[in-house]
Amino acid sequence: MVDLQQSFDCEMRRIVAEYNLDFSKIAVGVSGGADSLALVFLLHNYIKNYGGKLCALTVNHHLRKEADDETKYVAELLAKNGIKHEVLHWYHEPVQSGMENKARQARYELLFGWCKKNDCKILMTAHHLRDQAETFLMRLQRGSGVDGLASMAVVSPREEVLIVRPLLNFEPEELKKFLRDKNIDWCEDASNSCDDFLRVRVRKMLPKLEKELGLSAQKIASAAVALNEAKEYFAGQVDSFIKNRCRLWYGVAWSFAPLMFGTLHREIQIRVLAELIKNVAKVDYAPEYTSLSRLAEQLVKKGFAGATLGRCEFVKFNNRIWVVPEIQDEKVLSKNEWAEFVRKHSKINANGLPYKLKLYLVRKSG
Predict the structure, then answer these.
(1) Distance from C-alpha of 45 to C-alpha of 51, rounded to nearest angstrom
(2) Which mean pLDDT values do the consecutive 10-residue runs of the chain (366 residues) have?
(3) Between 217-245 and 266-281, two packed helices, what is the crossing angle to 10 degrees?
(4) What's the confidence (pLDDT) of residue 132?
(5) Looking at the structure, do residues 54 and 178 belong to the same domain, yes or no?
(6) In principle, which of 106, 108, 139, 248 could form an S-S bond with 148, CB 3.0–4.6 Å?
(7) Closest listed residue to residue 121, CA positions, set 14, 37, 25
(8) Sheet strands side by side (includes 312-317)
(9) What whole-number distance in Å separates Cα of residue 110 and Cα of residue 59?
(10) CATH number, domain at 138?
(11) Whose CA is closest to 253, among 275, 271, 274, 280?
């Protein structure tokens, strides 16, 4: 029977090959719970055979009285086993609401900050198969679409760092058994049994779903994987359209032919608009799905004249749709003002641009 370490090593080799990753320098988040401790020791054993440097990072949120003792335990345990370890602290004002989300955001900010400061491109997290199933159900409860239900990917780029989740195919009980076999204790976070958190309520519901409906964590996670494949397909279609059918103007605006846009499936149209808005408005998140859907419907109508969404203006000019940064300027751009701007910027297309883009270019330069 293949033991967990062998299965883990095999999974790591698969990830390296599939994503062409360099695992020579790895950071891993470790809280002291069973999942993250198992990951640290699995990685420690892995690099003995395949090389690399590992640093475990613990974030002390200073939210629970047990946090200091847990951090100390992790530090002593890892030092005893020759694993490099650093503690990152979140110092903050009292958290009145949204503690779970704020703590999560702070944790990742600290982890990404350490990685960038130490030129580490890989951050490992211990999300496992049940986490995948829980995330799927939580997002389903919130009414998420394909992207949300696709849940967690094995590799996700974020802030110049790649988050890698090598345990998504492993059950949490496997991880606990791995630690028990090595006589390694872990810390139990009391919040993991607190029904105030949606994830805890979902976790407690999973055994009932499997018993009464045959809906296991494995089946739910498999659905998330299938949806992730659909998400990747959509992303490929969007990238292809933007690369081959859209034109970037002076690094600030995009244009495309409404005729070609109209041939796309509505789901692809919505995603194209989302990407263009994020690029033009310089934001991380696109407007909500329903707003993008309404805009996509407007753009392919013959009578379309203009629209505004997500700090961008959509205008029709020269048989193309233009996506331009929104600018609130009541002052009219005069012909002389534009002519002077073109004289100073010889590479600018004097007559082939919509008024809104001309206005933005002039105001930006001023």
Answers:
(1) 10
(2) 88 95 94 95 95 95 86 96 95 74 88 95 96 92 84 88 96 95 88 73 91 93 91 95 97 96 96 96 89 94 92 95 89 89 86 92 85
(3) 70
(4) 94
(5) yes
(6) 139
(7) 25
(8) 246-249, 253-256, 320-325, 312-317, 306-309
(9) 8
(10) 3.40.50.620
(11) 280
Q: Based on the number of CB atoms within 10 Å of its own CB, is 181 exposed (0-12), middle (13-18) or buried (19 or more)?
A: exposed
Residue given tokens 């997500």 in the structure block:
310
The confidence score (pLDDT) of residue 101 equals 77
Tokens of 7: 């299965």
pLDDT of residue 347: 84
Between β-strands 53-60 and 84-89, what pairing exists: parallel, antiparallel or unpaired? parallel
| Total number of domains in the chain | 2
Q: Is residue 238 part of a domain?
A: no
Amino acid letter, 112: F
- Element containing residue 71 per DSSP (H, E): helix 67-80
Strand pairing report for 253-256 and 246-249: antiparallel
Residue 321: which residues within 8 A CB-CB, separation 6 or more? 255, 256, 257, 258, 261, 299, 304, 314, 315
| Structure-block tokens of residue 116 | 């960038």
By residue range, what is the domain housing residue 299? 250-365
pLDDT of res. 61: 87
Residue 30 in contact with residue 36, Cβ under 8 Å? yes
- Residue 174: name the closest of 355, 8, 320 by CA: 8
Task: Give residue 160's identity as a one-letter amino acid code.
Answer: E
Structural contact between residues 260 and 245, judged by C-beta atoms closer than 8 angstroms: yes
pLDDT at position 11 is 96
Token pair 């494949």 is found at 229
The answer to whether residue 281 sits within a structural domain is: yes
Spatial CA neighbour of 100 closest among 194, 206, 220, 204? 194
Q: Which amino acid is at 36?
A: S
Sign of the four-CA dihedral 265, 268, 274, 277: negative
For strands 122-124 and 25-29, give the pairing. parallel
